[in-house]
Amino acid sequence: MSDTALNDFNDKNMWRSTTVLAIKKDGKVVMAADGQVTYGATVMKGTARKVRKIGDGKVLAGFAGAVADAMTLLERFENKYREWNGNLLKAAIELAKDWRLDRALRRLEAMLIVADKDNLLLLSGTGEVIQPDEDVIAIGSGGPYALAAARALLRNTDFDARKIVEEAMKIASEICIYTNENITIEEL
Question: pLDDT digit string (tens) for 86-111?
Fold first, then answer.
């Protein structure tokens, strides 16, 4: 098999999954993720749980990417959060430093969104901490669709944060074949 054919074969058989969306509005933070895990053209699972509360219920975290990698990052983030006495921003920066410097961590293929009442952050696979210009952020296969829908709803409706997340995730699930309507929602 040629290199090109092998690459095409591998691309068709990639694990694809996840749309995670988080919004901060009117003192509330809401994060949601769909439940679909896809391998190539096959839906392997429809009810995966990709968002959760951590840090004694004061932080929302959602992940996209390889599950084992994401769980490793989530665990390390939670340890940093405890180490820095609940300072979300400092914990995120310290994890990003480790991510860039630690050879094993650099190979992890995952992204995290973490949020508390004051911060909404994306921790990228390149070791960056990104705070969005607007109080909305999304990751994963359907992330761009959910983000666009959420921004439009934020700018043009009076919906509360939960309703915006619900509607934006529904729209993403109608467009992205790697996103389903089995949505898990957490809020602070």
Answer: 999 999 999 988 877 766 666 667 88
